[in-house]
Each structure stands twice: as structure tokens, then as C-alpha cells.
């Protein structure tokens, strides 16, 4: 599997609706580099490519310009896409995943996603706020990363390490097919209970499990150390593994053990996506200038933290050291995408993202 080179774009798919026999999409998009504008889109409807798209691009977007005043082309970033649906597609009025991929001179930009009338219930609002909000939007954002950068397929067996209330599971439920499956575990038992209640009988190929592991923030009573934890799955079970904000709360021995276990449960040639805080000359420079949202400067053995009082609140690793651990455990880094946490403008996501492939 080869990583897809993504042309850097930023945007959002605001609206996806079916009007009579047409799919109508509205949103905004702008390139992050160069002088070439977005000139076309590729669109899928329930994983089926649509043809004969009628795209209106470069529409006025004062609202986008107000939020992103330094983004080139933000004043003419809005678009509308119309596509005639087949009679069979017109009958699908609910639970449809839409993807819209902008093209710049034929190169694919960052995929934009939305759902048409999703019927899977959301978790209770207090739990959504507990994990920081943005339940569906962040789930859709990462689903796009999984598909484009991780080459996730609908039939894959997926493992979500640190699944919480199922933010990523929610959007994966609209992408994985009957041959695919999802497993998630988390150390915070109340979140696992909420996830199980949310998905219930609607997603029989989805399973959530509580991992009784010690963590000073989320599970302080457990006697089980993360540095000794064995994932509750057999060898070579999964095609795709991801950790969206786990290593940002773990120390070095725990990270190394999780890398061991991730490698054990992955099939050869399969992929893993990790969101983390990478410390390198660029990110450290932004931190020194006071531009970072995370002041990860306090050394703690083989990692750095934003606070020595509760180190697990935000932990980062020197990039060469983390990449060394990854390599020693039989992985190749096939994708590296720096995030905006330290003050970088308009990057892929908030955290840094690594895509690994098991050798």
C-alpha cells in the first residue's frame, strides 16, 4: 500500500442534502500553498463515485475570510456541487456518508465529509462536552484522514486504542461494511458504558471493552500498569489501528509497550495512525516564542510534559527518539503530517499525525 500525496487544502463541507433527484453539497475550500485554486471535485455517495458533477467554485466567502484572514483565497472559497442521483440512490434518504475531495491541477486535496440524515443516536451531551465537544465534526475529520492517509477500506478490521465514548466509532459506522469490524477499548469505564449504550444493537460488528489500567487522571485505583498491559486481542487480528490522543497522556515505558502490542495485533502490511506531540526544532521554536497551545518544556525521564504536577495532562516526545522506538518494533513511517498545536498555521490537524506500516 502506498501513501497518497495530499495537496494541502483547508475547508469544510457545511451541507449535504438530497433535493428531488439531485445531491446538493455546499461548503468552502482553499489551497494552503501555491497560486493555483481548487478547480474540480471528486464526490462519493455511500462509497460510490458520482460523475457529471456541476461545480460552482470561487463563490464569495466573507465569513471564511473573517475567520481565516491570512488564508489566501479565503474571500472566494465557497462552492456548490450538484449531481443527479440514480433512482436507487434517491431512495437512500438517511445514513449516507458523503465525501468531497477537492482537486488542484489534478492533485487530491484534503477530503471533506458529511452525513445525510444520520439516525444513529448521539451520546448524552454531558459526555460529549466531557471529551471536549466536536463529536461528529472531529469524527468526520479523522475518518477522512483514515481513508486518505491511512488507506482504510470498508472491509477492514479496525482497532481504536483509547476509544472514549466512540467519537471515531460513530463516523466509522457509516463507512465500514458488513465484512469490516470495529473494536475499541478505554481505561475510563463510564465512557465505555456510554459507547456500548450508544451503538447497542445498531452496530453488531462494533464492540467496546473496558481496559482496567492505572492512569492518574482517568483510572487512579487500578493496580495494572500500562507498561505491562497486553491488549485483549489475538495476534495479527487487525488491518488498521489508530490512537487519536493516547500517547499525549503516556510516559515512555507505556508508549513502548503499546507499540509492542500494536505490532502484535496487526496483520503484516497493515497500517496504524497515531496522533501525538512531536518535539523537533520547529515545534520547540514556536514554544519558545510563546505561540504554542501546549507548553511542553518540562523534562520527565524520556519525555516532556506541560506540567510536572500532573504530567499525563500533556506529554510530548523528541521526534527522533519516538521514531527510533517505532523502527525498532518493526514499523516503517509511511506518512508524517505536522499539526498546529505548537502554533504552525493551517496544518493538517491539531496534533501531529504519524502513519505506520507493519513490515
TrEMBL record:
<dbReference type="InterPro" id="IPR029063">
    <property type="entry name" value="SAM-dependent_MTases_sf"/>
</dbReference>
<keyword id="KW-0949">S-adenosyl-L-methionine</keyword>
<dbReference type="GO" id="GO:0008168">
    <property type="term" value="F:methyltransferase activity"/>
</dbReference>
<dbReference type="GO" id="GO:0032259">
    <property type="term" value="P:methylation"/>
</dbReference>
<keyword id="KW-0808">Transferase</keyword>
<keyword id="KW-0489">Methyltransferase</keyword>
<dbReference type="Pfam" id="PF13847">
    <property type="entry name" value="Methyltransf_31"/>
</dbReference>
<keyword id="KW-0830">Ubiquinone</keyword>
<feature type="domain" description="Methyltransferase">
    <location>
        <begin position="155"/>
        <end position="278"/>
    </location>
</feature>
<dbReference type="InterPro" id="IPR025714">
    <property type="entry name" value="Methyltranfer_dom"/>
</dbReference>
<protein>
    <submittedName>
        <fullName>Methylase involved in ubiquinone/menaquinone biosynthesis</fullName>
    </submittedName>
</protein>
Amino acid at each position: 500500500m502506498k501513501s497518497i500525496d495530499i495537496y494541502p487544502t483547508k475547508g469544510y463541507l457545511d451541507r449535504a442534502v438530497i433535493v428531488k433527484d439531485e445531491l446538493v453539497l455546499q461548503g468552502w475550500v482553499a489551497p494552503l500553498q501555491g497560486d493555483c485554486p481548487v478547480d474540480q471535485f471528486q464526490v462519493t455517495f455511500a462509497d460510490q463515485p458520482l460523475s457529471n458533477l456541476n461545480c460552482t467554485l470561487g463563490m464569495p466567502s466573507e465569513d471564511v475570510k473573517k475567520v481565516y484572514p491570512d488564508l489566501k483565497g479565503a474571500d472566494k472559497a465557497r462552492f456548490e456541487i450538484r449531481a443527479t442521483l440514480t433512482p436507487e440512490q434517491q431512495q437512500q434518504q438517511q445514513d449516507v456518508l458523503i465525501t468531497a475531495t477537492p482537486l488542484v491541477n489534478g492533485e487530491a486535496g484534503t477530503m471533506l465529509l458529511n452525513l445525510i440524515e444520520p439516525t444513529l443516536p448521539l451520546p448524552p451531551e454531558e459526555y460529549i462536552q466531557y471529551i471536549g465537544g466536536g463529536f461528529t465534526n472531529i469524527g468526520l475529520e479523522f475518518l477522512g484522514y483514515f481513508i486518505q492517509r491511512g488507506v482504510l477500506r470498508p472491509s477492514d478490521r479496525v482497532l481504536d486504542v483509547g476509544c472514549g465514548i466512540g467519537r471515531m466509532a460513530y463516523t466509522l459506522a457509516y463507512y465500514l461494511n458488513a465484512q469490516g469490524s470495529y473494536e475499541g477499548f478505554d481505561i475510563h469505564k463510564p465512557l465505555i458504558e456510554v459507547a456500548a449504550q450508544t451503538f447497542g444493537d445498531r452496530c453488531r460488528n462494533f464492540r467496546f471493552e473496558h481496559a482496567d489500567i492505572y492512569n492518574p487522571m482517568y483510572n487512579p485505583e487500578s493496580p495494572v500498569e500500562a507498561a505491562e498491559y497486553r491488549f485483549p486481542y489475538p495476534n495479527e487480528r487487525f488491518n488498521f489501528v489508530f490512537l487519536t490522543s493516547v500517547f499525549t497522556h503516556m510516559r515512555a515505558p507505556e508508549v513502548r509497550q503499546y507499540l509492542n502490542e500494536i505490532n502484535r495485533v496487526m496483520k503484516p502490511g497493515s497500517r496504524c495512525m497515531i496522533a501525538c506531540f512531536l518535539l523537533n526544532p520547529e515545534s520547540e521554536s514556536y514554544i519558545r516564542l510563546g505561540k504554542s497551545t501546549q507548553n511542553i518544556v518540562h523534562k520527565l525521564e524520556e519525555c516532556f510534559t506541560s506540567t510536572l504536577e500532573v504530567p499525563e495532562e500533556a506529554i510530548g516526545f523528541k521526534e527522533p527518539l519516538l521514531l527510533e522506538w517505532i523502527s525498532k518494533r518493526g514499523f516503517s513511517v509511511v506518512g508524517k503530517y505536522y499539526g498546529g498545536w505548537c502554533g504552525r498555521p493551517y496544518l493538517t490537524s491539531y496534533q501531529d499525525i504519524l502513519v505506520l506500516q507493519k513490515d
